[in-house]
Amino acid sequence: MNTIIITGGAGFIGSHVVRLFVNKYPDYRIINLDKLTYAGNLANLKDIEDKPNYKFVKMDICDFESVMKLMQEEAVTGIIHLAAESHVDRSIKDPFTFARTNVMGTLSLLQAAKLYWESLPERFEGKRFYHISTDEVYGALEMTHPEGIEPPFTTVASSGDHHLAYGEKFFTEDLKYQPHSPYSAAKASSDHFVRAYHDTYGLPTIVTNCSNNYGPYQFPEKLIPLFINNIRHRKPLPVYGKGENVRDWLFVEDHARAIDLIFHEGKVAETYNIGGFNEWKNIDIIKVLIQTVDRALGRVKLETSKTGETVETYPDMDLITYVTDRAGHDLRYAIDSRKLQRELGWEPSLQFEEGIERTVRWYLDNQEWMDNVTSGDYQRYYEGMYANR
Prior knowledge:
By secondary structure, the chain is of the alpha/beta class. It has helices spanning about 10-25, 65-75, 90-95, 95-120, 180-200, 225-230, 250-265, 280-295, 340-345, 350-365, 365-375, 380-385, and strands at about 5, 30-35, 55-60, 80, 130-135, 205-210, 210-215, 235-240, 245-250, 270-275, 280, 300-305, 310-315, 320-325.
């Protein structure tokens, strides 16, 4: 039986990966290993927490001895490593925590996997260490076309109404690393350790670098859930600088599908970029969020223009508030995921408009989840569910 540890499985992306694997592979044992820091929320997994092939373990990945013991006791055959500190603003204020978790935590997992798997008769055969990273390790791309140009390639995720590129260059797997924030520097270091463990010890590793994710269960410090909640409650929407920074957005369930495919069929020692070619300026995506939330809440007003036409207006556009830009704020990220498409046949399943509609509707329909997260009540869920288990 395959026994797979998914680190950070109570987090945003991790919970979607855990759910997918638990439901899709009933003959696997899935161990969700999470420290339950502020962004880890076991309520994200209520629907599968009683499945017979699922187990939650509260553990710090930096605790090497405990990780090693768990590997041995559970006869672990694979690791999908998502656990990480990931918010750039927090990394600017507290770089030590990011270095500890993202670098030393990854090293702890690597060393435990190496020692345990080396002790088995088959050694590394049938084993896999899959490390999930970020496109931010590549640094930033120039915005050579701020007005937007026709893109060189498309995917299903590319928006039907908005499909532009803001430069000729994209992040490809062979680019050198140029991290600009403590967060991306820590992730870059962890990527190097993963590759070094393959090159030095032969550990069967894979690395992927993904663009910005959005969707249900994302902690509301990130742009999309934060702004959906603020629009709902008519609170200011703080926009860095002029909102010109560009990001490539991917629906989280499409990322989870890619992780599943790469874990099972990806080539050892390879790197795959995961993205949707779906570039959006921050200010444009904020306006789409306002329009989508206002429509869902019945706030759209009909007015007559000077030409006599009836036009829709969105009152919550007034919530946009420009604030001082973030230190070292990268201007543009854009992923070229054609290698993954070409070699493994993956591409996103959702167009951006559909993904945003689903995301907005989920947050509006799950206000209790949002209230529990913003109040901190979600952190008591573990005590209620697992204290006596």
